Amino acid sequence: MGSRSTLVGVEVPITGSDSVKWHELSLPLPVSRSNAISSGSSSPPPWPQFPPLTDDCASCCVVGDPPLYFIWRIHKTHPNVLELLELSAESEFPKIGLRITFPDSLSSFAHIHQNQQDGSTLTNPYTLYVLTVSGVAYLIKLRTISAYSSTSVFPGDELFQFDLTSYSNAPITSVAASAGCLVVGRNDGSIACFRLSLLNHAVPGFVNELRDDSGINRLWGFMSRGRTVGTVLDLVIRELHGVPFVFVLHSNGVIQIWDLLSHNKIFSQGMNVQNPEGTTAVRLWVSEANNQSDRIPLAILRRKSQECSTEMICVYSLHYGLGDRTTLSLGPLLPSIPLEEGRCLDVKLSSDRIWIIKDNGLAFHYIFHTDIDVKEAHCYALQEDFVAEQLFLNAELSSDDLLWMIHSIFSSSKEQIVPFIFSTFLRRLLLPGVLHCNVLRLTLLDYNKQWTETELQSLTFDGLKKEIGSLVDDEGLGRTSVSIYYFWKNFFGRYFSHWCKNNTPCGLLIQPLTGGVVLIRKDSMSLFRNMANIELMAEGCLQEFVDLLKPELGLSGDGEHAILLEVLKCVTSMSQSLGKTASAILYEGLVSKSNISLEDVVSQLLKILQTGCIPSSLVPFSDLSADFDLGKESNHKNLRKFSVNMILSLHALSRKANSWGKVLNAIESYIQFLVPHKILQSLDTEESLKIGTAAMVQATSQVAQAMLVSALEILLFVKYLLNLSGKINMLHADISRIQLELVPMIQDIVSEWLIIYFLVTTPSESPGIEDFSCQLSSLHIDSKNGRRSWHDKFGKLDFTLAFILLMSNQTSSQDLNHHSSHYFPNPRDLISAVQHFTGWIIWGNTTVESNSPLRHYAELGLTLLRHGQYYAAECLLSVVEANIQREKIFRSLQENDGDWCVLQHLLGCCLLAQARFGFPGILKERKIYEAIRCFFRASSGELASKTLQALSHDTGLPPLCLDDSVSSAAWKLHYYQWAMQILEQYNFSEGACQFALAALEQVDEAMSRRDGSHVGCTLDESAVTIKGRLWSNVFKFTLDLNRFHDAYCTIISNPDEESKQICLRRFIIVLYELGAMKILCDGTLPFTGLADKIERELAWKAERTTITAQPNLYKLLYAFEMHRQNWQRAASYIYEYSVRLKNEVVITDHQHLSRLLQERMNSISAAINALHLVNPEYAWIEPPFEKNLNRIEGYPHKRAKKTEMEHLAHDHALSRKEQSYIDLDKLQDQFVLTSAEYTLSLANIESRSTGKAGREDPSLLVSILVQANLYDMAFTIILKYYKGSALRRELERIFSAMSLKCCPNKISSYTERNQLVLIPSEEKFQSSPEMGSMYQQPNGNSHWATLEFYIRKYKVFHAGLPVNVAETLLRTDPHIELPLWLVQMFKDARQDRTFGMTGQESNAAALLRLYVDCGRHMEAVNLLVEYIDSFATVRPSNLLNRKKPFAAWFPYSTIELLWCRLEDSITSDRMIDQSEKLKRLLHGALHSYLRLLKVDNDDALAAAGR
């Protein structure tokens, strides 16, 4: 065959084949090995029975009908481990595989077949044959793969071992198997057949050696059996009409064929004669027999030498006939197939084709055709080239170009460069076919990141982005564009190296019936597809592309054919000049969250094409390598050269076409080709997650990328033409045609392919934690079995949005089912399925040609929204919206109003859901505002009421339930209320408030038409009720936003009185809970008509709130009434507060008591101050009614109905108010008592000032104060509460108590009462400075000083206080010496002593009487003598006063009593000497006094006689 080759297809990775979870099992040692170990022998066998592995090997065994595919792999790095996968074309790629660990290394052989129908097949339906390099054969009865779990040892009753070395010592060189039979070929050319299905090597017929039994060999036996054939190189077993035959290839080029039933050789022929000289046979492949043909193709791999390793494949045709005897004959050698590049890994044969997989590609040849076009190789590109291109690692796609292009595009917003670069590289890594879980794990391991495959498979896009971002930080790289670029460049290099090592091709699987081809790689699997037509142009086959599509493009002649060819050459030249990185930037700009548009990217790329460079200031090239600088200069030269050549080419193209109109016609024909094909057929088969479906999605991503790149390239080209229109002599009509027709057309195509590419490459998101609708769907309630597994795939990196659309819609690609769903799709059917799938994404599942694609986009968005893919739905709908807006600008497509409303509605739902689940802070607010705008737009369309009714309620949002016949205002009213409710449900009060206000604007118009022609209107409420409800909602939302002024204004605006009352009460409650009650008193709220209601609500709230709650509502009422200048009511509320403080608060400690009493003092003081502002005639308040209610925490928000007892109590209170009131005097009395209690609390003394009747007893409180030495407060109470004799009595009692404290041996009546056991406060007490300044204690530390201070201060209220004090002291301690200041008070009662002992109540006579009564005779005599002497020795100026009648007085009775007491003392023999002395002194003083009186009387009489 010729050496020409044509690229006809590419590899398509099967999604999920790289993320298999392996169940680990291990096998025990063979019996012989176990015996050797137990005996202590460790010597290895003399030689290996089978050559060890040098490469990874894999193959497939097909069993059953419908077929099951068992894929087995053996890696050279782990030669004792066999991996098994069980595949079915009718289901998805298996998640679980079986990994069996053998005691010895395995040969490159495994065979699986289905057991015959018996009892054992129920649990073990399959049998596995495996041969180790030591010659031990294993027969394993297999269950289904999913039935295994990871255990330590394989079940012993399902495992059988056979040591083949016991039958021959010759090394085994090849092995093959069929059901029940294992055939081995040895180094000596012998062939043995083992019936392993007998399970007993002692049974006759267990082993049979295939040999010639005719002629002389039978006579001479073993000695005559000379070695006529060489070493067995390869064995292949095939069935011909139910008879198994083994094909044997020997090293000397001989092929033998043996009948395994009769053990007879039926064919033997040497091949060296027909083969090229200098080559040796290596491998043998034989096609499956075709019952419709008598030819069996077979192929032999021949190699020239080990050093050169030049390989070729020789193909033969074996003819067979079946009759009484099977006859086989070899046909002539077909043209050989040289393998010029790459090493042959596997070959598969069908009846007319040969498939060859090399390490650099796959190719197939037609075997029995002589046509030269058929002879040439049809090649399929492997995935390595695709991965290298996507990772910017090939020569045509340098990442250096990417860096400086990004800097050029984001020259005005440099802060977006680093996120854009990071996202671009990350998105490339996550592309289907590029992402490989095990490769990613190994790459992260290079950066010391330990990740398991399970952890990686659970990562989302954002999670992986975060992890790689942490790698950048761990590497110590700065977050600059250059550092990020170099990190990704190094990361991609490591990743691709691991990808190539872990995905080497190992084997092929060919399905002759359908033509499906499966590539088995080391750690994944793939299908193959034919190339799309557009991919031919991408490969540079422009002529073939144009020739192939000449009918489809509608080219009328060779002239248009040539024009289009030249146009495509210009487009290709432009693409090569920019490099393929431009498409990556364009796509990232379209789908990323950056603020750059497609037009911005295109304009910057055109600027690069025209100028040839970018300013050096845009990128820090100084930080880059010298190679980068050289590349920049080279790019500059190439672009300048391109600019010149392009102008010349365009002039030549214009001359060839004679006008630009023909060129534009050719361009338009090409543009029409890029439009996704619309398939006008119904695709109503329910799709499941089949392997073919996964391959179709993957293939769609490849085709969509090529189509998107082509559309972007032609867009760049026509824009380039516009920029050069003046230089290339383009007419104005042509310019207008480009602007108004071609550019919008291309933009539509770009949008369509962008949508397709986005859906098939973007990983799905995990549903939000709070996303109830997605959680409910994940329960699989009433779901079909085919759909119960794919919900768990949400969030997996390999589960793209396209799978959600396929699984959620009753769609399928029929081309995958042309032959049978039991087989893998062939390359032709796979690309046909891609065309159907892309057409369905854009046009939908319809047989109506005129169906609107916008409606289908809305259905796609609704599907994504229903499954929690909010960001994806937003991107999809945003692209569609931008496209529609562009169409309306250029074409005014007003007929899509209804579908446009649906689009806006769904877009708003997506934005709202994202704001709820995925964005914090400013981004969340931005999403909310965008959603609000979308909802307003959705309601503005003429057909909105009709189209939005048809939406499914599966979005998780409340359904829109309204008749289609309502008026526009009624519809908007209903829709705005719906939007208000959904925003309220998501706690977005700002947006809900906007819609509530918008709904209010529609009420009047909607209600005015209710009785008109719109009979379908369902507005059954009155306008006032609707407005009241809406204003209540506005009130609630503004209150949630803490906009209290606006909330109050909504209360005023509410026309519904009942609703207004409820809102007002809620307003008070919220202000109270938030501590914002001051707004009611700062004068900012207009109380028009609501002041009394506010007061009632505040009072109602205050009555039902615990008195200690903060903020205090009584204080607020006081401030509220003071602000209204209602002084009397203000005093009433604040006084009620003090009363409740006294009655309800439970005292916990002294500090608490002090605060409570101080609060009561302040309250009473505030009431007094308020009443001082009132006219004295009205300066009183009503006493608060004491309600006998058990106050509990948490009162209901609604006012409770009054009970009968409450009514009676209220009537009783009214009668009491008529009889009693509280004026200023009573308030001041209470203030004084409270102040006294507060003073005691500061001293940590508890006061029990309540009498038996439950009223406060001032006398008892005074006693406690005196006992605590708090005299000022005690005297304040006495002066306030007592007058006249009562005041004198209380003063005497206080001073008596004070006097007792001066006596060390006092006996007080106070000790038996008012003595409390006080527990000092745990906290340090600090008295208020006000109280300290109010009650100053006298200086001095003694009780005498205190007594002197207060007796001098309060003697003016009771002149007899010194007498009371002196009497108390003398009676308490008869021997006490009265202080001088006290005695002096008696003596100072009258300064002029000429009048004797006269004076005030506390005079010398009173002191004398006290002395006499208390037995203080000496002090009494001395006092009397002192006064008598003073009386006698007066100054001349006072002599006349003494001589007046009745001028002097002495207590004669007391003196007489004193005389008697002295005589009694003498008589009773007590203190006789002292008494006699005192008697004489008294006698002398009295004698002198009496003589003086006689003289004065005589003088008075003499004076009277004159």
TrEMBL record:
Where found in the cell?
A: Nucleus
User: Ranges for the NUP160 middle TPR domain?
Assistant: 922-1173
The NUP160 C-terminal TPR domain sits at 1224-1483
Gene Ontology molecular-function annotations: structural constituent of nuclear pore
Q: Which of UniProt's keywords are assigned here?
A: Nucleus, Transport
The UniProt record lists the keyword Nucleus: yes
Read off the InterPro entries from this record.
Beta-prop_Nup120_160, Nucleoporin_Nup160, NUP160_hel_plant, TPR_NUP160_C, TPR_NUP160_M
Q: Which part of the chain is the NUP160 helical domain?
A: 555-742
Pfam families, sorted? Beta-prop_Nup120_160 (PF11715), NUP160_helical_2 (PF17238), TPR_NUP160_120_M (PF23354), TPR_Nup160_C (PF23347)
Q: Where is the Nucleoporin Nup120/160 beta-propeller domain?
A: 69-535
One GO cellular component this record assigns the protein to is: nuclear pore
Q: Transport: is it a keyword of this entry?
A: yes
In Swiss-Prot or TrEMBL terms, this protein is called Nuclear pore complex protein NUP160
Which species is this record about? Linum tenue
